[in-house]
Amino acid sequence: xxxxxxxxxxxxxxxxxxxxxxxxxxxxxxxxxxxxxxxxxxxxxxxxxxxxxxxxxxxxxxxxxxxxxxxxxxxxxxxxxxxxxxxxxxxxxxxxxxxxxxxxxxxxxxxxxxxxxxxxxxxxxxxxxxxxxxx
Length: 135
Hints:
There is one protein chain. By secondary structure, this protein is of the alpha+beta class. The protein has one domain. It is about 30% helix and about 10% strand. It has helices at about 1-20, 110-120, 125-135; strands spanning about 25, 30-35, 90, 95-100. Strands 2-1-3-4 form a four-stranded antiparallel β-sheet, with no helix packed on it. Strand 3 (about 90) and strand 4 form a beta hairpin. The longest helix has 19 residues, at about 1-20.
């Protein structure tokens, strides 16, 4: 039941974003980390497991648990619960929508739901990706 409510909350937040603008992820040093709201078939979508930003092997992917942007120990990663430097969510016009992060203390709107999902899956990024991307 928790999985369903967490997934519903996340999908509601992200559907609202997707309806208004394309949301892209950027690191604090403005490294492009992929399109968050794009279809999984788009080359730069974080949900495209064969693309540069969706692959668990790519250096610029939030799904690479050994990379700077996917490791739970990296300050640039959304999966570091102590970092306030998770990827920025920005639309094509440059509007900031918060951080894609599991850090619930930083006050980001979707962090609580994302944190619950991450913890519920024991930090398994493959499962987190499947749940977020296979809606």
